[in-house]
Amino acid sequence: MSSSPMRLILVPGLHGSEPQHWQSWLEQRHPEARRLSVPDWDTPALDDWAERLDQAIQQAPGSDWILVAHSFGCLTTARWASRHATARVRAALLVAPANPARFQIDPEWLNSPLPFPATVVTSRNDPWFDGAEATQLARRWGASTWDAGHVGHVNVASGHGPWPLAEALLEALAHGPGTARHRDFLPDQHELVASSP
């Protein structure tokens, strides 16, 4: 169990996050964690998913929630944030964002700076979105970036079940960047890089 109590709302991507996925691993480690629910994980619907995320956030008790999104879930989070303002969300960890162009999404829908601190994790060999382009998207969101190296799409297929880096980056969001920088298990000790629009 994590020593740092964090209130997480998990926002999976296309097809959801299977039991072996790192998001499911985090959910097991954080008993208060909640997970977005949509009618069909195989049919991405940005506005519908964003509205369902808003419902999930409004139904979550209290505040200080951290959104933990993967792939299309990152786009869902950005779309939600562009339409809703709430003090319930403290920060967001956005891992391996999906390429909006692959879903025919108008870039203007996703260009608003996020209204809370966020870290975008990028991969140098993500088959679904070039890492440099993902970094540009993070800049438009006003998010910090973490170059995780050659880690594929950061999913089960790329070997990301239990994923301690996610815990470290969440601690950085919750308690300050120094908490992630000095964890022994971080592979290359990359530092968080602040972005600006």
Automatic annotation (TrEMBL):
Gene3D superfamilies attached to this UniProt entry: alpha/beta hydrolase
Origin: domain of life: Bacteria
Coiled-coil segments: none
Keyword Hydrolase recorded: yes
Cross-referenced SUPFAM superfamilies: alpha/beta-Hydrolases
Annotated InterPro entries: AB_hydrolase_fold, RBBP9/YdeN
GO molecular function: hydrolase activity
This protein's UniProt keywords: Hydrolase
Protein name listed in UniProt: Alpha/beta hydrolase
Origin species: Ideonella oryzae
